[in-house]
Amino acid sequence: EAARLDPGHWRYRYGLAIAQAANGRDPRAELERARELNPQGAILFSGTASALARADGPDGWRQLAPQAGTPRN
Questions:
Q1: DSSP for 44-59?
Q2: Which pLDDT score, from 0 to 100, does residue 73 have?
Q3: Over 7-45, what HEC string results?
Q4: Rounded to whole angstroms, how far apart are CA atoms 37 and 68?
Q5: Start-to-end Cα distance in the chain
Q6: Among 48, 55, 67, CA closest to 25
Q7: What gap in Å lies between CA 26 and CA 24, rounded to an integer?
Q8: In angstroms, rounded to a whole number, what is the distance separating the alpha carbons of residues 48 and 36?
């Protein structure tokens, strides 16, 4: 809901990506949008976030989601 209400805020997009991944849904579009909105955001380019973007399907997304970290500046 937050991402819908404030579509220009990277934290909401990143949080949505993590929630999608935790539920076995493809988080890549939301991760990419968060990176576009905050190209200097270290967490968005961390090893775990990058691995999440490269994960192969629902099982991989679910496994990596808890390690992805929380959205912050």
A1: GGSHHHHHHHH--SHH
A2: 54
A3: CCCHHHHHHHHHHHHHCCCCCHHHHHHHHHHCCCCHHHH
A4: 18
A5: 20
A6: 55
A7: 7
A8: 18
31 closest CA partner among 7, 59, 11, 47: 11
Residue for token pair 């991944």: 21
State the burial class of residue 39 (Cβ atoms within 10 Å of its Cβ: 0-12, 13-18, 19+). Answer: exposed
pLDDT digits (tens, 9 = 90+) for 15-57: 999 999 999 999 999 999 999 999 988 888 888 888 888 998 9
pLDDT number for residue 36: 93
CB distance 10 to 45 below 8 Å: no
